[in-house]
Amino acid sequence: MPNENLVQLIKKIALDAFTASKPCNVILGRVQKLSPINISVSQKIILDEDFLDITSTAKKNMKEGSRVLMIRQAGGQRYVVIDTLN
FRET pair for 77, CA 20 to 30 Å: which of 6, 26, 49, 57? Predict the structure, then answer.
């Protein structure tokens, strides 16, 4: 029985550590410019093509002012633009 408690505690610690590392986040942005691409995440954060990976579906549907659905990769250095939102 005591070993089961220890195993559960270790599992909980590992899960908490994984969750705290934020492997990815879903983020909404707005296309400011198409060429060169600029997407604002907030008033202070505007992402350019150096930080973006854009799916072909998103590219087809993007226009200036479009809201986009993005996934921020671990560490926050890259964003994958999944699609536009209506």
Answer: 57
